[in-house]
Amino acid sequence: FAPKILTGYSILLTAGPTREAIDPVRYISNHSSGKMGFAIAKAAADMGANVSLVSGPVNLATPAGVNRIDVTSTKDMLDAVMAEVDNHSIFIGCAAVADYRVAKVADEKIKKSSSDMQLALVRNPDILATVASHTPRPFTIGFAAETQDVERYAKDKLVRKNLDMIAANDVSSSELGFNADSNALKVIWAKGQQDLPATDKHTLAKQLLELIAEQIHILKDD
Ligand code: C5P
């Protein structure tokens, strides 16, 4: 039983990896499992929120009561998020978005030859930063997966992307983070920070949402 502290709130989330096509059979992606984002979606729904989950390709069941929108590429994810953003007061960017896409996707399968080949890549839009600069702006939370100097990079990202909160994790350990069932987060906002020690992703999701609810209530009372 979860206290319904998010009743009346509408949360938009991204989760999982994005996939960038090279040709009809190949793509560029990453190891994100989507577990953290799906755990947040489930916990948010359990806490009474109305939840929309924009998910890249993952192998996970949709949590009960969650509105799931499936996408493949970063561009698709951005379009789905921007189509939904005005209906939500909280945005959580949990997806491991591909930072680059292939400059020119081949129409047909690329044939191998005896020589080496090069792939030209172009920068993808930043979904989180796009949401954070949108009006009206939802309470915006980002994630930062880092392998070193976690706090410094996370604080930098909080300011640079104009976020309300950032949840940083150290992905240099294989027991935590990306594909694992456990994670630990360092949560940072303008006026404070809190360490959420290693635990299963469902417990962590609940703790993160409690921090978000607390901050939103403080902002409301200001
Ligand atoms: O800059 P970096 O990729 O480390 O930032 C991570 C955060 O930004 C995550 O919350 C991720 O979901 C979001 N992001 C995004 N669009 C991108 C790249 C990252 O929304 N193109």
Report the total helices.
5
Categorize the overall geometry. globular
Listed once per kind, the bound small molecules are: cytidine-5'-monophosphate
Indicate the percent of residues in helices: 25-40%
What CATH architecture would you give?
3-Layer(aba) Sandwich
Helix-and-strand structural type: alpha/beta
Largest sheet: 8 strands, mixed
Low-confidence stretches: none
Radius of gyration: 18 Å
Q: If you had to describe this structure to a student in words, what would you say it looks like?
A:
The structure is a single chain. By secondary structure, this protein is an alpha/beta fold. It has one domain (10-102, 115-221): CoaB-like (Rossmann fold, 3-Layer(aba) Sandwich). It is 27% helix and 29% strand. The chain contains 5 helices and 12 strands. The protein has helices at 35-46, 74-84, 127-132, 150-160, 201-221; strands spanning 10-15, 20-23, 26-28, 50-55, 67-70, 90-93, 100-102, 121-123, 139-146, 165-170, 182-189, 192-200. The strands form 3 sheets. An 8-stranded mixed sheet has the order 5-4-1-6-9-10-11-12, with helices on both faces. A hairpin with a 2-residue loop joins strand 11 (182-189) and strand 12. Helix 1 (35-46) packs across helix 5 (201-221). It is globular and about 65 Å long. The mean pLDDT is 94. In the C-terminal section; belongs to the PPC synthetase family. Residues 11-222 are annotated as: Phosphopantothenate--cysteine ligase. GO terms for molecular function: phosphopantothenate--cysteine ligase activity; phosphopantothenoylcysteine decarboxylase activity. Catalyzes two sequential steps in the biosynthesis of coenzyme A. In the first step cysteine is conjugated to 4'-phosphopantothenate to form 4-phosphopantothenoylcysteine. In the second step the latter compound is decarboxylated to form 4'-phosphopantotheine. Its EC number is 4.1.1.36, 6.3.2.5.
